[in-house]
Amino acid sequence: MTSSYDWQTIPEIVTAAHAKLPRNLWDFSCGGAETETTLRRNRSAFDYLAFRPRVLRGKTVRDTSTTFLGHKLALPVLPAPVGSIIRFDPDGALACARAAQHVGTGSFVGTLASPSLEEVAAGASAPLFFQLYVRGDHDWVRALVQRAEKAGYLGIALTVDSGAYGRRERDIHNRFLARSGHRQPNLGEGDGARSDFQAGLTWDDLDWLRDTTALPLMVKGVLCGEDASLAVQHGVDVVYVSNHGGRQLDHAPATIEVLPEIVAAVHGRAEVLVDSGFMRGTDVVKALALGARAVCIGKLMTWALAAGGEAGLQCALELLQEEMSITMANIGVHTIAELGPEYVRTSFPPAAAPWPVEVETRDLT
Ligand SMILES: Cc1cc2nc3c(=O)[nH]c(=O)nc-3n(C[C@H](O)[C@H](O)[C@H](O)COP(=O)(O)O)c2cc1C
Question: Which of 36, 53, 252, 329 has the most CB atoms around it within 10 Å of its CB?
Fold first, then answer.
């Protein structure tokens, strides 16, 4: 099944989302913490990495498929967990899961997302992974994890980079509160405001979670080798490298920058997932070459959903796949398994384009 949208490039989708979204939602999705240094670094770090293409390795077919936690994915790109996803499309996390299903990949579903984790699981057959925010005591967490288990989720990702909610100054200036005005059905009876539980998390809680569920466990928000090693020692199956898209800690490193350190520390004992700043097929190929198993998209996902709902996100995922496939052809690899660090090298970032790059765009909405 191919998406019904005829957007031909990823910037066309971003332009369409920008045109459609009210200012406060655009700012909420695109903004970062404080000076937005992390946010900008996530993108600019890709410019310091160039490919080392190999030539004359002709094969006409490229295969972008891989496995994640043993599940076959046609595309190593998954929608990231996004709490207020319902604000970008009335079907929220269900639209993400369905778009993922159409392209043969999996999807994350957030604790703060809607519709409920059960409704998403009932409405889509994609491999689903549940992102966990801790908003209550162990009994509260156990009940939520058991709901995810019962609904057929294939893994639990504990977010660990959110001890305190980042100061996103765009939202502060707009007096915008993301969670007001819509339900967060995964939270159950509580009001979801008990973020002190999240702030108090320790490695002991991770051990407890490891003992509480038989599902594969991921820690989301790891940014250094020491924590990656600890996570593996504490039995996680996936180290999820993320700086929350620059929304939490300002002046954090870019994830593509720390990925090699983390892959080395993990040393094949767990799978490595990465997000933050990923917008293009080349970004994905660089991360896979540096040892990531798959990549998640946050902002691009919200924009594709805002622009065109489920079909819009499907279109974005298909464009990423096409860009990946072209990149693979032009660096001389045909399968993801062939990628390795020998296909990238550090380089200097490009100067501004030497000619005007403004392109006249059609009405893309
Ligand atoms: C609007 C928005 C809401 C988010 N909500 C959550 C969340 O509830 N839980 C979580 O772990 N991460 C959340 N994230 C972070 C994403 O899961 C992901 O780490 C990040 O968006 C990746 O960076 P990118 O946006 O540059 O792709 C959110 C991101 C955005 C853009």
Answer: 252
